[in-house]
Every structure is written in C-alpha cells, then in structure tokens.
Specification:
By secondary structure, the chain is mainly alpha-helical. The chain contains 5 helices and 3 strands, in the order H-H-E-H-H-E-E-H. The chain has a domain of about 100 residues: Glutaredoxin (3-Layer(aba) Sandwich). Helix content is about 45%, strand content about 10%. The relative contact order is 0.14. Keywords: Endoplasmic reticulum, Secreted, Signal.
Amino acid sequence: AMEKSYISMFLLLLAISCALAKDAGKKETKETTAKPKLPQTLSRGWGDQLIWTQTYEEALFRAKHSNKPLMIIHHLEDCPHSQALKKVFAEHKDIQKLAENFILLNLVYETTDKNLAPDGQYVPRILFIDPSLTVRADITGRYSNRLYAYEPSDISLLYSNMQKAQKLLKTEL
C-alpha cells in the first residue's frame, strides 16, 4: 500500500512538472506581448510582486529542483496576529527583496505533514525547509512556547532568520 501511494505521488508530481514545463514554454511568448501583470492572488497580501506556490507539494518540488530554501507562512485571514504580521512583512522592503530568493508558500489551512507543526498548530507560524527537504527546526523566533511564531515587532528577527536560511544553504549543501 505504501509503494502504491509513493507511485501515485510520483506520477502526480510528474504530471504537475510536465504541466508546469508546458506552461513555462507558453509564458515566454505571452510575455513578449507586454500585458499588464495581474495581481497575484496566491500572495494573499504577503507580497503581490513575489512568486508564490499554490500547494505544499509544489513548493517542495520547486525547492528541491531550484536549490532554494522554502519559506512556509501559516496564517489565517481572520486572525489579527496574522494580519498584523502580514502588513509589516508586505511593507518591509528588505524582506520583500530577500524573499525573491526563496520558494514561497502561505497557507491558510494545515497540511497533514506533522513536520510543519513541530510544536503545535498555531498562527502565524513561519518555517523554513531546505532543498534537501529538511524542515529547519533550528531556525526559530523568540518565543520558547511558540518557536516559529513572529509578531510585527519581530520583523528584523524574521529578516535575519531568512538570511540564516540562505546561509545554511550555502554552507551545508
């Protein structure tokens, strides 16, 4: 049963990558006709000019194949803490610039991957995953009871953790 699920997952990833490859070929011709860029809904307000992935699976695939770290933001649209962090994140020019070097995913639902909730399912929660698909549980915020929580006042810590996630990439892989 386990092998079957691996095979079906592999086929799914294969189908997605084929579809993505086909789309990539099309995009080049479309962009030359200079259409105005539509705001990206996948950003959910975290950075409309950034490229966001749609699913956890797609994000893992892209992290592995692009050799970029993955940054996952768990949040809820009606959570005041999530909204406050989102506003500061989206307005922070250095973070927005640095975020271009990451595969980005923001989730308003929990995944079934328990590695993404090492110390519980709370929001906002930000985790980094390196291209070897290891959750970097060592990159934490300042709260001992919620290791991956950030508040608007922690934005510079988040920025330095993003830098750390990139440095680890260069030194370890």
